[in-house]
Known about the structure:
- Helices cover 40% and strands 16% of the residues of chain A.
- Chain A has helices spanning 2-19, 42-55, 80-102, 104-110, 153-174, 205-214, 230-244, 246-254, 276-297, 301-315, 321-324, 346-362, 424-432, 437-443; strands at residues 58-60, 114-117, 122-123, 129-130, 132-135, 139-142, 259-260, 263-264, 333-336, 366-373, 379-387, 397-404, 407-408, 411-413, 415-416, 447-452, 464-469, 476-480.
- The longest helix of chain A is centred in the first third of the chain and has 23 residues, at 80-102.
- The radius of gyration of chain A is 31 Å and the shape is elongated.
- In chain A, 36% of the residues are buried.
- By secondary structure, chain B is α+β, with helices and mostly antiparallel strands.
- Chain B has helices at residues 2-18, 31-47, 109-112, 118-121, 164-168, 173-181, 286-292, 381-391; strands spanning 53-58, 64-71, 76-81, 84-91, 93-96, 100-103, 134-140, 144-149, 155-160, 188-193, 196-203, 208-215, 218-229, 232-241, 244-255, 260-265, 270-276, 300-302, 307-308, 325-329, 338-343, 353-359, 365-372, 397-403, 406-411, 417-421.
- The model of chain B has no long low-confidence stretch (mean pLDDT 90).
- Chain A binds chain B through residues 8, 12, 15-16, 19-20, 22, 28, 30-36, 38-39, 41, 61-65, 73-80, 119-121, 123, 146, and chain B through 8, 11-12, 15-16, 18-19, 21, 30, 32-33, 35-36, 39, 73-76, 90-91, 93-97, 101, 103-107, 111, 114-117, 120, 125-128, 130, 133-134, 151-152.
Amino acid sequence: MKKKLLISMLALATVFLAGCSKKDDLSANIVGLGGDTWTKGPIDEWISTNYTTPYNIEVKYKWDRSELGEIYKNVVPIQEDLVIPVMSIIKKTWIDPYVAVKGEDFMKKYCQKQFYLAGSPSYNSNGSITLGTAEAGRKIVLLDLNTFDQNNKVAVRQILHTMHHEFGHILNQNIAVTPDYQRITPGDYTATWFNIFRGAYSTNAALDKIMYEADFWGKGFITPYSRSNKDDDFVETLSTLLEGGQANFDNIVNNLFVYDGVYIKRNGNGVYEQNVDGRSKLLRKKAIVVSYMKDSWGIDIADLQTRIQAAIELQSPTADFNSLLGPAKTYGTITVNPQKLTGLSTKFLAAYNTANTGLQTGVGYYIDNISLIFTTANKVILRVNFMDPTAALGVGFNADFNFDVANVNGNITLAYSNPQPTTTTYANARAIEAAIPTLLNYFKGQQFSIRWINDIVPQSKGIFGGLVKTADPTSYLFGTL
Amino acid sequence: MMKKHLLYLFLFALALGSCKKDKTEPILGNADDRLSETLKAYQTQLAGAQFGWKGYLLTDTKVLATFLFSFTDKNRTTMSADYEPTPNESSYRLKALQRPTLLFDTYSTLHLIADPTPSKFGGAVGGGYYSDFEFAFLSASADTIKLEGTFNKSKLVLVRSKSAADNASAFTAPDEMTATLSKLRTYFKRATVGGLDCEVKLDPNRRVLGFSYLEAGTLKTVTSNYFVSGSSLILFEPLVIGTSTITGLNGVSFDAATGFINASTSNGATLQIKEAIAPLKYDASVAARFLANPVYGTYSECYTGFTVDGVIDAYGVRRIPNFFSIDYYPKITGQNYGAVRFWLGTAYGAYGPAITPTVSVDGKISYVQDGSYGTAPVAIRPIITNTTNNFLKQGGFYVIQTDTKVYDMVAVADARSWITFE
């Protein structure tokens, strides 16, 4: 009986095993939905050579609506002739500097793996437009590229900012930054950061600008977006340092003051009250970013920054300052306010400060700032803006001094005009000239070279324009444009 | 014991049965294979046209554009358009989305009209003209491919070009058609379709063809945009009139002897469009409504003056320096009369008639002149005089409402002059 059972069990098991030995035909080709391949052209080859082969990055420039974050928007594809210029500049100013500092393998391991390029921006219902999005360190969508112009530095920087921002996220997700970072401004992160925009604060443009800047820079955030959360704050600081450069960052910090309406608060001698809190927060954040890059990744941020800035300058060169300054040109005025600048030459500062002291003791006024105005052909106006400390805070008075100049290849000699005009600003000049001889003599009859001063303040092209004495390169001044 | 055997037997049967292989094979073959073949066939068809394709686009906002496409088998396309005649090369590919879809996948002339940035080509911010560059195949015959935009639902019809000459005339054919259609002098036009007496609506500027006919005493109107291919006028949407369906008119020509437009419908039936001086069915209530509710509160505007015998602005009001509009006031506030004024951008010209309307029982407006706002300068005097005289025409005007706030005034006497207020 037992044997029978065993046999029948065995038989049953055999039938089970044998009966179910089905073989599926696994040799069929997977056809797919089609349309994912096309005849490769020069653009595809370029991408393959520069992105896909070396870094395993896919660059999609052909239309695929499903790659857009918001597929229900009217967006158009990119122009073919812009694909290589855009991707080339990204390679040279994002990938190459990192490779130079950290080597190929680093980028191969950590870079984003997919780009999607589109031609128009994505229009939002609130009237704003989206220029790019990124998904979790994997994919970057760049929009509005049909307006790409390699010579438009602002637009180029905008794209690079996105690149460095997103790559910053990847770095931070691999090795987290110290929590000390988020403790610097713990209470000011807000989900409604996008309400920080020009025009949101006042109908008075000057006041609006001050309040706008005070709402992020003043609170220790490098951009409005950095107020959204600690991670974006961190990568915004990193990307602003890399894409904007050192001079840009320092200039932001050096311009943080405490305001009373549209004017900076100051004491009776015209000394401004600094926004110490905002400055220190930004500087502490920068310090953490610098040490994070050094300690976690072994990257000297100054080195990386220098390489990136040099690459940007190489790809999108800035014309020399002399060719951009003058009547009906890009720049007309250089404004020199020593309280907002660092790095002015000792010789200029000595002349300026002596004049300021002289004006205070002699006439009872103080100098707020000076400017050099180049808006008239063959003339430079030195405008000394001075204040009466007993009067209410206001725009103050202007004293104008005319100089005749001839510009020879960017070198000008300032010959004091004779006679000077007699209108109000020149009458003001007569009233204070006796008290400020050192300042006037710094310019009178002197020869200067008009140029960018990026050798003096690194990465400052487009931010500061300067005048350097041809006879003495250690004597110079520069200002904002 | 027996029970146990039965159980084994049952298990045994189950074991055999459960392992029965399904032998069914898809008789049409692998669906993916078929899809891929379909796409390949479309691509071959597109690339195979010797002279390329004429493309007729109707955007979602009813903007029409004509294109010339040529496709290669290497995913490249060269196109020109009536709004951008210089040929430009870009890429295309066929992809199966919800349906087999033709994607113009890099920026081209076709994308201009869809560009959401108005500074590129106009249209709405964030939408352009609501056009497409992803088109699903609706139907395809050897010579005609009908496509529909997958995003904005615009329509694109591709017609295989017959010759280089066919291509050369693609952008001018609509103007020639407009010239032919404009030879009918009257506002009202009639045709007989499938035994039904129809009023024909022709708007060559917006390329709209429509028919109105009476069904059990009610006026029914069907309209569609059309495109012009040679001497054919092809509708984007078929028009159903009673039991007949019209998809287009072929061989459209004007017969000077009879004054008719001759054409044939797609099924070969001849169609004659004739002049008529009265509407098929007139809504007598419109005239009073038009006078009582001017479009801008107290007045309505006209931008092109009178159309006479098919000639728009026959008297040349647009030649008046700084002319913006003719403003018609049915009644000047505080006065017994109305007026026709000529708005010159910043002020009214010191001329133009004061006219008073009367509405007859059967809903026609006629005018008498009550005076004038001054004598027009000599240079433009004929324009003002002709316009004034037309308003004063014997028999007055029919008022036809063509849209919520658009009214046409048509001369009752001969229907050969009319003016649009909006």
